[in-house]
Specification:
9 strands, 19% strand, C8orf32 fold, 234 residues
Length: 234
């Protein structure tokens, strides 16, 4: 488990931010087709990168359990896998924004937000999050990331994004999914799908986590925010 004095919603990311030195295009290839319409650069040396890689391995273990429960529901011993399939299966018959909206609402309903977001600083796999049930923003994001992948969304069209909320200077995690030519944000605080390019008045994008590891948003003239306020982000 990782801990930090960073914002309550993403305490576990704190050590990675504190340890990460500025990443420049000289060290990593810039990529433009990302959420918010911004380019990103590789941030593979951050401690967060190792945490994310470990979590991807846990995703793989979860997928094995989920596949077994899908194939033989009558013998499924994992209540968390059954809940996960409940999040995914209805959405599998849908496409595009409708499918994304189904999963956003179902995942928001499947977990309960912590009264004290400081209480859980650990990143969890989707099934572990469903077992614990009481969660913060990063757990909702992990569940949605996995559920959208299970519903057939291509890995390249999925990210977990870490942002700073401009109004509070808090950091927050959401899922970004590319569908119908747009990157949409899925937030545990609302069932509304938010077009990422229209959210820059509210958020400062910091990091994107996906199949290609951890990447840092390139924000000209804006230094990376290494530490956040102690106030809750939601």
């Amino acid at each position: 488990m990782m801990s930090s004095r960073l914002f309550p919603c993403l305490l576990a990311v704190g050590c990675a931010f504190l340890a990460l030195s500025t990443v420049t295009a000289a060290h990593a290839q810039s990529r433009i087709d990302e959420p918010f319409g911004l380019s990103t650069v590789e941030a593979s040396q951050a401690p967060l990168s190792a945490t994310w890689n470990d979590l991807l391995l846990e995703f793989s273990n979860d997928r094995t359990i989920i596949a077994q429960c899908r194939a033989r529901p009558s013998s499924c011993a994992s209540s968390a896998a059954q809940k996960f399939l409940g999040v995914v299966q209805e959405a599998e018959t849908q496409t595009g924004r409708i499918q994304v909206a189904y999963i956003n609402r179902a995942a928001n309903a499947a977990l309960r937000a912590l009264n004290n977001p400081r209480a859980d600083a650990e990143w969890r796999s989707p099934l572990d999050a469903l077992i614990k049930q009481v969660s913060d923003c990063k757990h909702y994001a992990v569940l949605k990331y996995a559920a959208l992948g299970a519903a057939g969304v291509a890995p390249a069209a999925l990210k977990i994004v870490v942002v700073e909320v401009r109004s509070t200077h808090q950091q927050h995690a959401m899922v970004a999914v590319r569908t119908e030519g747009q990157w949409l944000l899925l937030d545990n605080r609302t069932s509304i799908l938010i077009e990422s390019s229209k959210a820059l008045d509210y958020y400062v994008p910091l990091y994107a986590l996906g199949q290609d590891g951890v990447r840092q948003f390139a924000l000209p003239g804006h230094p990376v925010q290494m530490a956040g306020s102690d106030k809750p982000a939601y």
